[in-house]
UniProtKB/TrEMBL annotation:
This is ABC transporter permease. It comes from the Bacteria. It comes from Planococcus notacanthi. Keywords: Membrane, Transmembrane, Transmembrane helix. The chain crosses the membrane at residues 52-84.
Length: 115
């Protein structure tokens, strides 16, 4: 891809990511609240504690739903990562990831040893 278009797409993706930084932070905080609610719900023994932590988890879930624009920011960050990889001449396809996967390489070596 032409360097001009990479720069243009990078600037646009950067602006989108920065404009959605608030919702991304809000989503991260609300997901921590959901995690804490579920974690302590599973550890609690009394019915009142289970009710409280379920309530905390539901409130955190509602807060996470309200931060749906953070997904646009996450997609913009993924786009920036792909543009960065393309700029450096690295492959952005899944085949390159599969080739560098240690488990795939292990299976290939294991099959060669068993022949």
């Amino acid at each position: 891809m032409n360097k001009f278009w990479l720069i243009t797409l990078g600037i646009i993706a950067g602006i989108v990511a920065l404009s959605n930084l608030g919702p991304m932070i809000g989503l991260a905080v609300s997901l921590v609240i959901v995690y804490a609610g579920v974690h302590y719900y599973l550890r609690s023994t009394t019915a009142l504690a289970k009710f409280w932590w379920a309530f905390v988890g539901v409130i955190g879930g509602l807060a996470a739903i309200s931060n749906v624009p953070a997904l646009i920011g996450a997609a913009a960050l993924a786009g920036l990562w792909m543009i960065y990889r393309q700029w450096n001449g690295q492959s952005v396809s899944l085949e390159a990831v599969k080739e560098s996967d240690p488990f795939t390489n292990f299976e290939q070596q294991w099959n060669k040893l068993n022949k």
